[in-house]
Amino acid sequence: QVQLVESGGGLVQAGGSLRLSCAASGSILSINAMGWYRQAPGKQRELVAAILSGGSTNYADSVKGRFTISRDNAKNTVYLQMNSLKPEDTAVYYCNADVRTMVNIRRYWGQGTQVTVSS
Length: 119
Fold this sequence. Notes:
The chain is mainly β.
């Protein structure tokens, strides 16, 4: 099986920074896309940023210029550097990964990490 474990969430003041990490482990042959989603109370889960194995990235308009997604393919880890945080960035952040195993290719999700930005 495959597991994704996130870390790096917490409480920060507006204007501050946080760095999230998500490490995939298990019977992994390869990983294509990796990404971060977030879900605020009462709202739908939304894409924050995604990155392909070759390095191509995609960002939500609301985080462009403030957040940076990156990955270490050797470590099967994806990162999200979040700068100039705003109270509206408060949410539970989930990572995902499209993983190829001996059995199939499917998307796996982390358990979520809380990010709270105070004004």
